[in-house]
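Forgive a beginner's question, but might I ask you for the amino acids of a protein and the tokens describing how it folds?
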Amino acid sequence: MAIREILREDDPVLRKVCHKVEKFDRRLWSLLDDMAETMYEANGVGLAAPQVGICRRVVVIDVGNGRIELINPEIIRTCGRIEGPEGCLSSPGEYGIVPRPEKARVRAQNRDGEWFEMSGEGLLARAFCHELDHLDGKLFKDLALRMMDPEELE
């Protein structure tokens, strides 16, 4: 495993729509492991492959209940709406108020290519939406109702 460089918001890779993963092999597994290690090292709760320069539909998330790996994910259902603070490892020290669903259900493949579905609410729903936005070239700032001063988080 290795810690990868996290791209900053001005990198053009972050504005690209990512390609579907077709090969489920050791190279993908290595990417997933590296992304998780990078996310934990940066004290994040999610990381998308384009944030480490890989334009593939791959996401890792951990909101405190263990690592979730999502390959070729799609949001299949949402419920409710809540506005809350959000930040991004590609925009360190910046936060905004972003509207997101209260609940979200995703369909994705695991590292072996098997399809599964998973539901989340609160922070997990927010993480699903935030990270999947990265796969379509969107940043949280694109959706923010307003940017916040970091002191407002306390």
In short: The radius of gyration is 15 Å. The helical segments are 26-41, 123-135, 140-143. Residues 26-41 form the longest helix (16 residues). The beta strands are 46-48, 58-61, 68-79, 82-87, 95-100, 103-109, 115-121, 146-148.
